Task: inverse folding
């Protein structure tokens, strides 16, 4: 940038410099014209300031100085001007306004160099660290229409996020560019902000969205922490009374300031996250803004209540509204229970239970045939399937956290790692789904080395949880080129069962969002399984979310010490001559349904088998390749997707298992990994061969 970049400013400056040079030449010539002339030491010389519109001389404008001494002036730089220097090399102190010309030897005139900003535009550049940004010139003043370039620099400690106007992004500024070099045209005085984050940090800004933060009365909460390669998503604040609003109840978070009643289902709310659920913080800005989603509480007159033990019970809903938000209290008394028959036969479609509700009696919502969605909190500690008899359209179940996780930090309580990895996988992903045979029997880094273009996910969980459920969730995130391998253990649960098991809640306690990812009308036993989970969890205080597990890596592999067989015994009960015992036609139909979804999105579903201890195989089938082939052929005939493996490949010697017929030692996991890679390579070479 040229400080005086108009033609008029340039010409004026050149003329002034020429005049000063001429005066200096005359003075030098006068001093040198006669060898006999010697100036007396007591004779003073004059120092004069050349008048300027930009300077007011407070002291005398001309002073007499003994040669070798200093000349001092008191000046003031006028508004609209910026001091740039002077022709005599005098020192100017902007704080005191004093101008000092040291060691004066000859008569001197002082010309000021000033920048007239009255008709110029100012660029202000805000940055936490000035060394991380630069202008493309030397100053911050420009003419209207000037093209300006500002540059940001990354460092080892800070990463550039983007340029914003109005304020920093975390304070509500508007993002205008994420380029390190940002070029624009000056049309008005402008302030832009260079946004940085620490290289390993993320920030979530929670907006109370009409409410308040309970303890501070503020409108926002800002949470910052380190990014984590294990937990690729972040847990949101659970419902512990953090946000309050008179007459309203929080039901979750959204990436936009919206209302609950404006949507048929929470899954239609932009960027919805359960309370205590997980949210995806963008990689580019590492900052996410979330807004509390409020539901307006129902008028108390729409209910009949009764008292019991100092608590209020909903005896009967008598209102006409289809969206019902049961209040937390009645005249300050907590409403804690839904009594038998309270909503029986009602035409409600959406129900929100407050975090005060602890009990839902049998038939509490019996016969609510129009009910499609329920929002509740894990403060409910007594409920059964019978509470929702006849609710055949209840497809969306939103479970919010009211308390911290009991299982956080344990291997089976950290299945959220796998869910998060699927949600955030960049590009193509390769996911292996089964129970603990894959959790304990896969070396994902070997897969990653073989297939570097894929994000590898070990979605091994627990044989007591339905693989169909996980496959259903994964199908929501499938894209073109993704590969999903189903390698379930030999049993109904991992081979297509739709029955919810209590361990599903234990494994996903840190990501309750997962339950609203599926159409719950396709599943059974949700409430009984939830009750069993609550019984197991008890009244534990809980652990902070995303407590490090220590035995699960970023892929989802279990890495605990499994060096040798610990001496467990296995009984031979798995009979491969009876494959229908392990894959029913109904379960095969559900797996084929998932395959259709995956294929429709451009993905590929493949079948394989879990590892199994040879000692657990029935005597008639041990090392019986014909039985293995028969079993494999049955699966290939029943399933509409390629089964790329032979079951016999994964029946392994007893010493390759650690403490279960499914759990491989490290050596066993090496073999299983190599075999599955070989099967996958064969499929890629000739997909028509399966």
Result:
């Amino acid at each position: 940038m040229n400080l005086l970049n108009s033609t008029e400013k340039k010409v004026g400056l050149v003329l002034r410099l020429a005049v000063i040079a001429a005066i200096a030449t005359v003075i030098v010539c006068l001093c040198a014209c006669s060898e006999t002339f010697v100036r007396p030491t007591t004779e003073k010389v004059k120092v004069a300031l050349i008048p300027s519109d930009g300077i007011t001389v407070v002291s005398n404008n001309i002073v007499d100085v003994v040669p070798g001494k200093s000349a001092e002036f008191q000046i003031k730089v006028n508004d609209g001007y910026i001091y740039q220097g002077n022709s005599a090399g005098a020192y100017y102190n902007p704080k005191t306004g004093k101008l000092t010309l040291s060691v004066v030897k000859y008569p001197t005139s002082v010309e000021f160099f000033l920048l007239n900003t009255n008709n110029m535009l100012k660029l202000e550049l805000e940055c936490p660290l000035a060394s991380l940004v630069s202008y493309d010139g030397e100053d911050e003043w420009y003419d209207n229409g000037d093209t300006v370039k500002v540059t940001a620099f990354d460092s080892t400690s800070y990463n550039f996020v983007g340029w914003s106007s109005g304020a920093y992004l975390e304070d509500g500024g508007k993002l205008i560019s994420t380029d390190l070099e940002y070029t624009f045209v000056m049309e008005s005085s402008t302030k832009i902000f260079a946004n940085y984050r620490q290289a390993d940090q993320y920030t979530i800004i929670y907006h109370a969205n009409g409410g308040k933060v309970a303890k501070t009365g503020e409108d926002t909460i800002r949470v910052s922490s380190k990014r984590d390669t294990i937990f690729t998503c972040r847990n949101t604040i659970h419902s512990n009374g953090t946000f309050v609003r008179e007459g309203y109840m929080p039901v979750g978070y959204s990436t936009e300031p919206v209302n609950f009643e404006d949507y048929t289902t929470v899954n239609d709310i932009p960027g919805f996250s359960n309370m205590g659920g997980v949210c995806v913080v963008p990689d580019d800005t590492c900052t996410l803004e979330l807004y509390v989603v409020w539901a307006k509480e129902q008028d108390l007159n729409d209910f009949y209540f009764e008292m019991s033990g100092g608590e209020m019970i909903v005896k009967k809903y008598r209102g006409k509204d289809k969206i019902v938000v049961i209040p937390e209290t009645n005249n300050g008394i907590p409403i804690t229970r839904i009594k038998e028959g309270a909503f029986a036969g009602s035409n409600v479609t959406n129900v929100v239970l407050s975090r005060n509700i602890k009990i839902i009696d049998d038939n509490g919502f019996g016969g609510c045939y129009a009910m499609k969605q329920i929002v509740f909190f894990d403060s409910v500690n007594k409920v059964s399937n019978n509470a929702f008899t006849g609710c055949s359209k209840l497809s969306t179940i939103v479970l919010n956290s009211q308390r911290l996780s009991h299982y956080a930090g344990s291997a089976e309580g950290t299945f959220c790692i796998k869910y998060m990895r699927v949600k955030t996988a960049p590009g193509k992903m390769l996911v292996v789904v089964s129970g603990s045979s894959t959790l304990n029997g896969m070396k994902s880094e070997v897969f990653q080395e073989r297939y570097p273009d894929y994000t590898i996910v070990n979605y091994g969980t627990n044989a007591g949880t339905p693989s169909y459920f996980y496959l259903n969730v994964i199908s929501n995130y499938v894209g073109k080129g993704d590969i999903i391998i189903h390698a379930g253990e030999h049993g109904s649960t991992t081979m297509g069962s739709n029955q919810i098991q209590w361990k599903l809640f234990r494994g996903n306690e840190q990501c309750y969002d997962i339950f609203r990812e599926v159409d719950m009308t396709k599943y059974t036993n949700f409430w009984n399984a939830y009750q069993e989970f609550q019984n197991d969890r008890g009244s534990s205080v809980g652990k902070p979310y995303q407590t490090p597990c220590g035995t699960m890596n970023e892929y989802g592999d279990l890495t605990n010490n499994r060096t040798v067989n610990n001496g467990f015994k296995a009984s031979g009960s798995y009979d491969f001559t009876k494959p229908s015992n392990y894959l029913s036609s109904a379960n095969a139909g559900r797996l084929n349904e998932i395959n259709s979804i995956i294929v429709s999105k451009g993905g590929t579903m493949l079948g394989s088998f879990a590892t199994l201890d040879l000692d657990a195989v029935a005597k008639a089938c041990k090392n019986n390749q014909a039985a293995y082939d028969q079993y494999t052929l049955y699966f290939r005939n029943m399933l509409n997707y390629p089964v790329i493996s032979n079951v016999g490949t994964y029946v392994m010697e007893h010493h390759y298992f650690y403490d279960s017929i499914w759990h491989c030692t490290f050596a066993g996991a090496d073999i299983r990994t190599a075999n599955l890679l070989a099967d996958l390579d064969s499929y890629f070479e000739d997909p028509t061969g399966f």
About this structure: The CA atoms of residues 683 and 689 lie 7 Å apart. The longest strand covers residues 287-296. DSSP finds ten helices and 40 strands in the chain. The chain has five domains: 7-116, 121-198, 205-296, 317-400, 416-689.
